Every structure is written in structure tokens, then in C-alpha cells.
Amino acid sequence: MQSAPWKIFHHDGREIVIDVDGGITIDEHTANPFPTDITHAALCDEGLVATWVDHELRLARMALIPLNEKIQNGISKAELRLSRNTAMVAGSTWCHIVDAEPLALSAKDDKIIFALWMRGLYCVNSGDYENWRLPLFESKEKTPPRSEEIAAISILEEHVVVWTRGGKYRKISLSDGEILTEGTLDIECDLEEVFNHEEKFLLSSKDGWTWEFVNDQITVARKLRGTIQDAVFDGDDWRIISWRDDLMLRGDSVRRIDLGVQLIQKDGAWMVLDNQGNFSRHMSNSE
Fold this sequence. Notes:
Elements: E1 5-11, E2 14-19, E3 24-26, E4 29-31, E5 40-44, E6 47-54, E7 59-65, H1 77-83, E8 94-97, E9 102-108, E10 111-116, E11 120-125, E12 130-134, E13 150-155, E14 159-164, E15 168-173, E16 179-184, E17 191-197, E18 200-205, E19 209-214, E20 217-223, E21 228-233, E22 238-242, E23 245-248, E24 253-255, E25 260-266, E26 269-274, E27 279-281
Antiparallel strand pairs: 1-2, 2-3, 3-4, 5-6, 6-7, 7-8, 9-10, 10-11, 11-12, 13-14, 14-15, 15-16, 17-18, 18-19, 19-20, 21-22, 22-23, 23-24, 25-26, 26-27
């Protein structure tokens, strides 16, 4: 991997490392199946489902890449710009030209849930069969621009929770798309990311505010120096990396030199992968 890491997944005992330029590294082999960086990625039972978007050319793709085969290089950005190439993603099990920007994507087992801007919310299985689709959130009241836009999708055991930037949320049946409940956070926010541990959620707003949300109630509110890069619930509290800080939601914060990218448990310890590709213990003083 030559570029800074963006996200790490674990699959069948191997690390799948995605870098900020769209490179995917498995067993020290790196390839770029997409012509741009990867905008969303998740693991399902059949491999890695991911999207790329080129805003300049107004092009986007979604593809499922199997991980039991060697990752292949696809077309380059230069080739894409010259011909607006309609080729599919190299080595993919299936691939689609997406006619609107993917806003959020999540997957579990054979279910893949994603939202497309101004289109809707979709559930497909890993075999590319559509299970259900729903329209996007609508409001008759005057709301801030893009506040009804889907910001995050949380998949639980038997249902999905979909969150808008303005703080609305829906609980939806994973099996058939039935809307079970709908609510509003009743706070001013611009949600960027939502992390969850079972029915416990951690919400991150673009202005640095974060809230723990449990049983349809906010239980903790805290203003951070930046937005959350990653967070995990360790059984007692939320471990968070935000800008150049490590912190516990209900505890102290520790400064670090390099930007934290992802929290990963290694040998029983919570470690932070930074943008240099190095690991250090969470909440250790890295300065």
C-alpha cells in the first residue's frame, strides 16, 4: 500500500486494506479496480461491495468484488475522462452504472442497503436481486437545505435504522422494508455519521457535537474539537478518534500526532490506525 489507509476490513482471517486513492491491498497485493477513490464500502457474505463517484464527469458505479480471487486493476481516471468509459468494474461479480450519487451504504450477511440521492432507499441481496425499495424522507414543513438527505444506515439483527442529516430516523424491517417506527431527534444537527452497537447509537454532527442515543433518548451530549473519524463501544463506554484526539465519550481526551483513521482490536487491545499506516494504542499519549 503506497497511499494513506482509508479503511480496513477483516475477511476469513485476512486484512483487506483500502487506501484513499481506491487501492485495495490483500496479502501484499494491491490493485485499483476503480478509476477513482472509493466513496462507500461494506462487507457482505460474497465479498466487498463498494461505490465510486466522479462528480466532474457525473459518473458513478456500484460493484461487488469477490475476495477469494485476486483483485484486478480496472480502467484509469485518464481513460475514463477520455471516453467516459462504460466498462464495468474489473473482476466484479456484478456492477451497475448508478444514475444518482450514493449517499450511504451498509451490508450484513446477504443484505446490502444503500440510498441514492433524490431516488430512494434500496435493499438488494448479494446476488443482485432487489428485495425492496422505499422513497426518501419528505417533509411538508420548511427545512434547511439537504436536511432530509440520508446520512447513515445502521443494520441491526432484524431491522435497519436510517438517519437523515437533519435528525429524523426510521426503523425499517430488514426482511420486507416495512416502516416500523419513525422519530426525530429534536436537536439542531447536521449528521455526518452514525455508529452503533446493537441498539446503542453514537451520532456525529458536522459541527463537532456528538450524542449517545439509546431507547429513543439522548443520554450523553458532548462537543468535540472535530467530527468523529471512528468509534466503537467497548462494553463500558464509546472509544472515539476525532481529528487529532483519542477520547472516551464519558472520559478524558488524549492528543495524538498523526490523524487517526480507524479503531481496531488487536490481541485484546484497542489500537488506532493512523494516516501513516501505523498502529498505536488508543488513549496512549502519542505526542
